[in-house]
Amino acid sequence: MKGPYHANPDKTVSFVGNKIFKDIADVGAGKFPADEACKRVKSLKNDPAWGAIARINHRINISANNYFDAIGALFTALPLTTRMISSPGAVYGKEAISYTTDTCPIKIDWFDLPHKAFLSESSQIYLEMALMQEGVNHVYSIYNSFRKEPGDSTHLSEFHHIEYEGKINQEENEKAAWLLVQNMISAILGNNLKDLSYFLSRQDIAALEEIAAGKGKLEKISFKEALNMLYQDTGDTRYNKFTLENCFGAWEEIRLTEIVGSVVAIKEFPLLEVPFYHAAVKGKTPKVADNADFIWPGYREFIGSGQRVKSKAELEEKARIFQLPKDDYQPYIQTRELPGYAPTSRFGLGWERFLQGLLKMPYIWSACQFPRVDTTLKP
């Protein structure tokens, strides 16, 4: 299965084209054009691609809700404002753990309170807290997420997450995430084949049919194995160091899927280079997280997943390392004090990321009717 991108030997990324977009030599050099934002309303009227995207988006929403209903997950209405961000290292622990992959949240004033509030960059912490309700074992949300990241070919500053949290282990969690993907693709193929065909070739659609039928390959490898593959492929010694710092980004994700030839789930990232709530895999040295990132073929990560820290003592130690404000995160830490607390796992799927990879679009704003990036609030 081929995706929208190709990892070039010079570490640039090219767009390989679909039925409506031509090849682009260096897609990473593209910036969201202000004039496109100003013309978006007319484009919605005149370009039939937007109608196809609207119908596919509707199917994603319906099929996701149906899937979660079938597994007993309850939709949970959650706040978009918080003091408990789920990736806080870049804010609170910047000096101590500047090498983490955490992203900066967007700060806002909240009436006359002395401290800033944050716009949610994930529903994860609140979904965990929702599982404290009696008789509730699985929850999910479909919400806006905000990250203070400049827009580029695969990043929006505001996007949508489909997020799940359940009283299951990480292996079961990974299966649940992949089944959601299969169900959504199956529903789109069954109801929106004409819309898919506007963007994709028959060969592309056949590859999606393989995934929907449960025949599509999902290769699981550890982060250490991923680095070894990249070293063998390139001879670049930076991949001999067990770290995400300066050696694992878009090019590496794309290249790994080209080497493997399928969707790749990369597991067991360095424990202190991923968000604080990830549990450690027991018995592994160096310490690694019980997590997995799913990489769409020829594209980027579109699902993040992981097992949560179980014990209060371990969570408090993580809070100390990540320099979390104790008062703000006390409600989250409290969950581990409750009688009968059960460990949970979560996955989050980036809606626009999934759609961009699915339709083989060059830029993420090409798959989003009303894109929000750092340079504009139009339309």
What would the keywords be for this entry?
35% helix; 13 strands; alpha+beta
CATH superfamily: Bira Bifunctional Protein, Domain 2
Low-pLDDT segments? 90-101
- Backbone structural class: alpha+beta
SSE order, one letter for each helix or strand? EEHHEEEEHEEHHHEHHEEEHHEH
Q: What's the architecture in CATH terms?
A: 2-Layer Sandwich
Average pLDDT rating: 93
**What share of the residues lie within helices?**
25-40%
Taking the alpha carbons of the first and last residues, their distance comes to 35 Å
The main β sheet shows up as: 8 strands, mixed
- The geometry reads as globular
Rg for CA atoms: 20 Å
Provide the spatial order of strands within the biggest beta sheet.
Answer: 3-7-8-13-12-11-10-9
Tally of separate domains? 1
CATH class: Alpha Beta
Can you tell me about this structure?
This protein has 379 residues and is of the alpha+beta class. It has a single domain, classed as 2-Layer Sandwich (BirA Bifunctional Protein, domain 2), CATH 3.30.930. It is built from eleven helices and 13 strands. It has helices spanning 34-46, 48-70, 124-130, 170-191, 193-199, 202-212, 223-234, 250-260, 312-321, 326-334, 351-359; strands at residues 5-7, 13-15, 74-75, 81-82, 107-108, 117-119, 138-146, 158-166, 218-222, 263-267, 291-295, 301-307, 345-350. The strands form three sheets. Strands 3-7-8-13-12-11-10-9 form an eight-stranded mixed beta sheet, with helices on both faces. It has a three-stranded antiparallel beta sheet with strand order 4-6-5, with no helix packed on it. A two-stranded antiparallel ribbon has the order 1-2. Strand 1 (5-7) and strand 2 form a beta hairpin. Helix 1 crosses helix 2, helix 4 packs across helix 6 and helix 7 (223-234) packs across helix 8 (250-260). It is globular and about 55 Å long. The two termini are 35 Å apart. Residues 90-101 have low confidence and may be disordered.
